[in-house]
Each structure stands twice: as C-alpha cells, then as structure tokens.
Design brief:
The chain has helices spanning 26-47, 75-85, 157-160, 162-176, 204-214, 235-239, and strands spanning 9-17, 51-61, 64-72, 94-103, 135-148, 180-186, 195-201, 223-233. It is of the alpha+beta class. The radius of gyration is 19 Å and the shape is globular. The two termini are 30 Å apart.
C-alpha cells in the first residue's frame, strides 16, 4: 500500500462487553474497571501513547459497541497495550478485535474540511478517577471500512469514476460542513476491507448525504464498504490520557 505515514502505529479496536460482564456485582465491576484503568494508564505513560479516541456505535453489532483509535510511536507500545487490555480480570469479560494500521497522508484530505471540529479539551481531573462516561451529541461520525473490489484497481481512474466521486464528496463536504476526515491503512489487509475512514459531520442529515454519495455510481460499484454511524465517546476524559506524555 502507498500513502501510509510510517512514524506511528494506530490500533483499530472493535470492542465491547460480553453478557457475563453484567452478571458481576457492582462492586466487582468497579474493582475490575479501576484495576484496568490503572494498568492502561501506566502503559500509556511508559510507551508514550499519543492518542486514545473512542466512538460508540449508534446501533451495536452483536458484542461490538465501541470503536477505538489508539496511537503509539512504536510497534512495541501497540503490542504491549493489546496484551494489557486483554489481561484478567477485566479482560475476561470483553469482546476484542484488533487491527494494526498506519495513518494515510492527511494532507490529501485536509482541504475537504469546511467546518473543523473543535479539539477536545482534556478534563482537569486525574484520569485515574473514572467519571460517568457519555457520548458527545454535538456531531455524527461515519465509520467506513472499505476496499476496492477485485479487479477495480486494474481499471483506469476514468473507468472507476474517481474524479466524479471526489468532486461529489467535496460538494457534500461544502454543503454540509465536513468537520473531519481521516483514513488509516491496515498493515494486514482483510478480505473485505483494507482502509478505515473516520468522517465527522454536524448532523444526521449530513451523515446520510455522505453515505449516499459514497455509494453513488459508477465509483460505488467498484468498492466494498461497510458503514456504521457513531458518536464520539467521552472525548474530554480520554483526551486526558495523553496530555501528559
């Protein structure tokens, strides 16, 4: 793959809690959560984690409810984080699907953003103290997992309708106030996706327009896309996990 930035590793984590989690007592859940947070904060500090960002799906998919971007400067940090996240006792009650990726060149899409999302302001409190976690209702996030269908990359850009597709997406961005667009490329491509996209928009109407445009022909017939809508998950709290490093 081309266009990947080699200076960091981004963990893509599709996570959730198993039904067994809810069979624990309140005291057990609180104890396991606190032990887990303390451990993960120590990993973040030890390995210089540069980002922890979560999203909660509007419609959960089985045991998958949250999507995370977790960024480290080294592969060692990413591997250590994954091992620690699955460690008992907290790790016994989770749904885990991990993919390692690298950022796509952000300069290719920065000009598309017409209404930049405000940076999350970290909470002043110690991140070891877990607050009540909530979604941020101020925007809608489109999570898209995509790749070209077999043979599509052998077509010319004109045959795929690339220019028409780009013009359409930029038009949607202008009309609806695109707040953010970010892509990452998998280090190990999957059968039905090898890139993930995070697209933030101000309204559900805007998100629906974006999704419809992604599927428009002719470009849409040459791509496989799985799309979910989400909200940012407690952004001020998780921004506080990295501000010190």
């Amino acid at each position: 793959m081309t266009g990947l930035e080699p200076n960091s590793v981004v963990i893509l984590f599709k996570g959730g809690r198993l039904p067994s989690w809810h069979q624990l007592s309140d005291a057990e859940r609180s104890e396991f959560e606190q032990t887990h947070v303390n451990l993960m904060l120590s990993i973040a500090e030890q390995h210089g984690m540069s980002r922890l960002e979560g999203f909660r799906l509007i419609g959960r998919q089985g045991n998958w409810q949250r999507f995370w971007l977790i960024e480290f400067p080294t592969m060692e940090g990413a591997e250590t984080w994954i091992r620690a996240e699955m460690a008992p006792p907290y790790g016994l009650y989770g749904h885990y699907e991990y993919h390692l990726s690298r950022p796509l060149d952000p300069s290719r899409y920065s000009a598309w953003v017409t209404k930049p999302a405000a940076a999350s302001v970290p909470r002043a409190a110690d991140p070891h103290t877990i607050p009540e976690l909530k979604i941020d209702p101020s925007s809608i996030v489109v999570l898209m997992f995509a790749r070209y269908l077999p043979g599509a990359e052998a077509l010319t850009p004109d045959e795929r309708g690339d220019a028409r597709h780009i013009a359409l997406m930029q038009d949607i961005a202008r009309k609806h106030g695109l707040m953010r667009i970010e892509g990452v490329g998998l280090l190990s491509p999957q059968a039905d996706w090898h890139r993930a996209w995070i697209i933030e928009l101000p309204t559900l109407e805007a998100a629906e327009a974006w999704v419809e445009a992604e599927e428009a022909l002719p470009h849409g017939m040459h791509a496989h896309q799985t799309i979910h809508l989400a909200r940012k998950w407690a952004p001020e709290y998780f921004a506080n996990w990295t501000k010190r490093y």
